[in-house]
Write a structure and sequence with these properties.
By secondary structure, the protein is mostly helical. The chain has helices at residues 2-16, 19-40, 49-78, 83-88, 90-96, 101-131, 137-167, 171-203, 208-220, 223-233, 239-244, 255-261, 271-295; strands at 248-249, 252-253. It has two domains: 2-169; 187-274, no CATH class. It is built from 13 helices and two strands; from the N terminus they run αααααααααααββαα. The longest helix has 33 residues, at 171-203.
Length: 298
């Protein structure tokens, strides 16, 4: 297929430019480095529950860093994927070959997704080789799931960045749009959802439970928050406990939120629905960018 040719070329270009090698080294250091402290400091050399706790603690600590670093790297990898070729004039040459505009967008998404996903997999493999001697079967399964989630987060932001690049007219527009989306998700989203939900409770008469349910739903629309709470589902005993971690700081959730949300989690807030929301942040920007790219005058 034509889009496969575009994807292969994009990935080969990344290999030649040593993007994959550099990112692999970065993720090996990021993921395997903290795990090596297990041996350096002699922490967690036991078995059973103690060993399981090591891998789960690794997930709990690493998710904060990966939730920041992985989206940034994905944006750097994807934001200029189309605009740079558009500005240089090579895009017209690419489209003169038997490639449709949709092939170009989807091929770029696939190629850049491989550029981010493969190094993450290498980094997790290196960390796993360190952690496996101290991990039970359950902890290993959770560790692998966390690796998959982290790759998904990277692919989601690649899709977002490539979609914006397809819709933008220049590298500057694509960079501003991609970085703006990241800042919105990382800095402003949580505060905005809290204030909106609080305002609805004060002025629209929402009960405390409904207020926190509305706020939870709004928080889960953020792909970074969705990633964090899915990672928490691998650590905590229930999905409700994982969702409660979105209210509060680190391992100390807001007591008011805990009391209001209770113990029963509505089905729309369960892991499969949250994962589907993350996937939508990949599909929708790519589709919208592709539609706008089809209409653009090159």
């Amino acid at each position: 297929m034509s889009l496969e040719a575009v994807a292969r070329k994009d990935f080969r270009d990344a290999v030649r430019s040593r993007w994959v090698l550099v990112l692999s080294a970065l993720f090996v250091v990021l993921f395997a480095g903290p795990a090596l402290f297990r041996f350096t400091l002699g922490i967690g050399l036991g078995e059973g529950a103690e060993a399981t706790g090591i891998a789960l603690l690794f997930i709990q600590l690493m998710k904060e860093g990966t939730a920041v670093l992985v989206p940034i790297i994905a944006i750097v990898v994807g934001y200029a994927s189309i605009t740079r070729e558009r500005e240089s004039g090579t895009l017209k040459l690419l489209l003169s070959l038997p490639h449709s505009r949709a092939d170009v967008v989807v091929g770029k998404v696939l190629g850049r997704s491989a550029v981010i996903a493969l190094p993450i997999a290498v980094g997790f493999l290196a960390a796993g080789l360190v952690l496996i001697p101290a991990s039970s079967g359950f902890a290993l399964a959770s560790f692998l799931a966390f690796g998959f989630l982290t790759m998904l987060l990277g692919v989601v932001f690649v899709g977002l960045a490539v979609g914006i690049s397809a819709a933008a007219r220049s590298d500057r527009e694509a960079m501003v749009g991609s970085v703006g989306a990241f800042v919105l998700f990382q800095v402003f989203w949580g505060t905005a959802t809290s204030r909106i939900a609080g305002g609805l409770q004060e002025y629209a008469g929402l009960t405390a439970q409904n207020r926190y349910l509305v706020e939870l739903g709004a928080k889960l629309l953020n792909p970074i928050a969705a990633y964090k709470t899915l990672a928490d589902s691998l650590v905590f005993e229930s999905q409700m406990q994982a969702r409660q971690q979105l209210f509060g700081f680190f391992l100390f959730p807001d007591p008011a939120a805990q009391e209001a949300l209770g113990q029963e989690l509505p089905v729309v807030f369960t892991d499969p629905f949250v994962a589907a929301l993350m996937v939508l942040w990949f599909v929708v920007p790519v589709y919208v960018g592709m539609v706008l790219f089809e209409r653009a005058d090159l």
